[in-house]
Design brief:
Length: about 160
């Protein structure tokens, strides 16, 4: 099964920020932080230009690869030139949330609840590449055999 949608969002990946609150006229109003809102809009524009069809209403799998800028401390000759694991903030689930919100805003998905499986990976860029966020999506087929009896450690 091939990937139905693939997109590269150049620049440093970002995690979804915690909602902020303010009161107006005695009512509480929640809003996304400025950086989160700007990143989501920019990513949605790129995704919309790649998708160019009505939003998918099928169940899908989404893979996210977040490639963060490589710090200078890892640019020495003795350091490996390949990608390395990135174990810092933002959390991988927050990266996933901002990507799925962008996909909904772009009209790639009707609702992010359609995503039934997937994977998020965070790495530092290799010495030759820049930062970016790679997104892949495809329809899911039948439920894998192992999922019917999962978790196996409880058997």
């Amino acid at each position: 099964m091939s990937w139905e949608f693939e997109c590269l969002i150049p620049g440093s990946p970002m995690g979804k920020g915690r909602a902020r609150a303010t009161s107006m006229g005695g009512y509480v109003r929640l809003y996304s932080p400025k950086g989160t809102a700007e990143w989501t809009r920019a990513a949605a524009l790129l995704m919309r230009s790649e998708w160019r069809r009505p939003p998918s209403s099928e169940l899908v799998e989404v893979e996210v690869l977040a490639v963060f800028p490589r710090p200078k401390r890892l640019m020495r000759k003795k350091d490996p030139g390949c990608r390395l694991w990135y174990g810092k903030k933002p959390d991988k689930d927050n990266v996933d949330k901002i990507v799925l919100d962008s996909m909904v805003m772009a009209g790639v998905l009707r609702d992010d609840c359609q995503v039934v499986c997937g994977r998020e990976t965070k790495v530092y860029a290799s010495k030759e590449e820049g930062p970016g966020l790679y997104v892949r999506m495809r329809r899911v087929g039948e439920l894998p055999e192992f999922a019917g009896s999962w978790p196996v450690w409880l058997d």
